[in-house]
Design brief:
72% of the residues lie in helices and 8% in strands. It is mainly α and 156 residues long. The longest helix has 28 residues.
């Protein structure tokens, strides 16, 4: 029981830290969590199409259209037709969207600090962290589907 309590407390601290950063960014950008996640995916991949976003976010194509409509209205992404296959539309970051990911001095410092902490772990501790963090993220994603959160937000 004590071990479970410790694990629960560690998980709650982990979620709170990630949540606080996400909420701060969402408020600054005036986007929902699913919209933020889509924006991050487009940033990481350079560009993404609707199918890729739907698969990665575990959403329907209709939900992706609504999310990307909002991001496009805000000026964060743009739709670009594929030059080879007319059926494909790519979502790419605009200058404003790319600016979201420019590192501020505080973000750069936090990332460097995190790297220092992770380097201090042994190889087996890092491997364990990867397994636990991945399992935890997957469990959270399946327990709180993004589609439901987006539907709740639009009903308000």
């Amino acid at each position: 029981m004590t071990e479970l309590r410790s694990v629960t407390q560690a998980a709650e601290r982990f979620v709170a830290a990630v949540e606080a950063r996400s909420i701060a960014l969402m408020l600054r950008l005036e986007v929902s969590l699913p919209q933020l996640r889509a924006l991050v995916l487009v940033h990481r991949q350079g560009r993404a199409n609707g199918r890729q976003l739907a698969a990665s976010l575990r959403l329907t194509p209709g939900a992706i259209v609504a999310i990307c409509d909002h991001l496009e209205e805000r000026g964060y992404i743009t739709r670009v037709a594929d030059t080879v296959d007319r059926r494909i539309t790519w979502f790419e970051l605009t200058e404003r969207g790319a600016g979201v990911f420019n590192r501020t001095p505080a973000a750069t410092f936090a990332k460097a600090r995190m790297k220092t902490l992770l380097v201090g772990l042994s190889s087996s501790e890092r491997e364990g962290f990867i397994k636990v963090a991945t399992a935890f993220a997957e469990a959270l994603e399946s327990a709180f589907p993004v589609e439901e959160a987006e539907a709740d937000r639009t009903r308000r």
